[in-house]
Amino acid sequence: MRMLDTMQGMGSAMLLDVKDLTVGFGRHEAVKGISFEINAGETLGLVGESGSGKSATSLAVLRLLPESARVSGAIRFDEEELLALPEEAMRRRRGREIAMIFQEPMTALNPVMPVGAQIAEAVAAHHPEIGRRAVRARVLEAMDEVGLLEVELRAKDYPHQFSGGQRQRILIAMAIVNRPRLLIADEPTTALDVTVQAQILELLKALRQEHRLAMLFISHDLAVVSQVADRVAVMQHGVIVEQAEARRLFLEPQHAYTRRLLASAPTMKTDRSQPLASV
């Protein structure tokens, strides 16, 4: 996309700066001293197989890890150290300046509350000064923005009345309604079929361009990441083994694990008579 290329060429200010991040649970270290940056308006793809430490990294940024977790290093958002913030201050940033889209909408949404009310809760939590009419206007605008139809009627419906792709759009509406600057998307298309997956990726790209939204896009699927990321960081066993501009990484992977990940993804040219490479 030409807009995407233009944004990549802009001298963007650093928004998120993670240095030497380590996350431990008991004797196990899930994340081992990783570092990465995300500029304003940029998407970083964080890729690796299950158990590589991707989700622990995202939860550390949001400070949503259990109290038993050991976290060290530095996580600076807009030059502010998140790990040093009091919990109340972090709560104000979480959902307002940094938002997250979770992998499975049915577990992230409340099954007994209309979806409009759930999006409205996200607005009211961060903007208690806004009246009910203004909140409702924001809710409907967000639902419309993510491509849901008949939003005034559908805002009264419950999660089970929507398809999987529509539920994911509702989660995206909930994430963007407060106009965050950084969106963390944790495997947002894994549970969707290929056609709906493509629609959600196009939606995320459009929202990014419209709002100059930075994204940390987490996935085990390099093919998916190739469609949205400016740069890619590859994780294995809690370590970032390779990090590069997306096009360069896909054309000239330097690390053996990255090459195995690429070889394990089927393409139109894959010889179907041969087994896929394993990671």
TrEMBL record:
Annotated GO MF terms: ATP binding; ATP hydrolysis activity
Record's bilayer topology term: Peripheral membrane protein
UniProt keyword annotation of Methyltransferase present: no
Keywords on record: ATP-binding, Cell membrane, Membrane, Nucleotide-binding, Transport
Pfam hit, one: ABC_tran
Lineage top rank: taxon: Bacteria
GO cellular component assignments: plasma membrane
Subcellular location field: Cell inner membrane
InterPro entries: AAA+_ATPase, ABC_Ni/Peptide_Import, ABC_transporter-like_ATP-bd, ABC_transporter-like_CS, P-loop_NTPase
Principal location class: membrane
Gene3D superfamilies referenced in this protein's UniProt entry, alphabetically: P-loop containing nucleotide triphosphate hydrolases
SMART domains reported in the protein's UniProt record: AAA (SM00382)
Keyword Membrane: yes
SUPFAM superfamilies on file: P-loop containing nucleoside triphosphate hydrolases (SSF52540)
Domain ABC transporter intervals: 16-262
PROSITE patterns, per database record: ABC_TRANSPORTER_1 (PS00211), ABC_TRANSPORTER_2 (PS50893)
Residues spanning the membrane: none
Family named by the database record: Belongs to the ABC transporter superfamily.
Protein name from the UniProt record: Peptide/nickel transport system ATP-binding protein
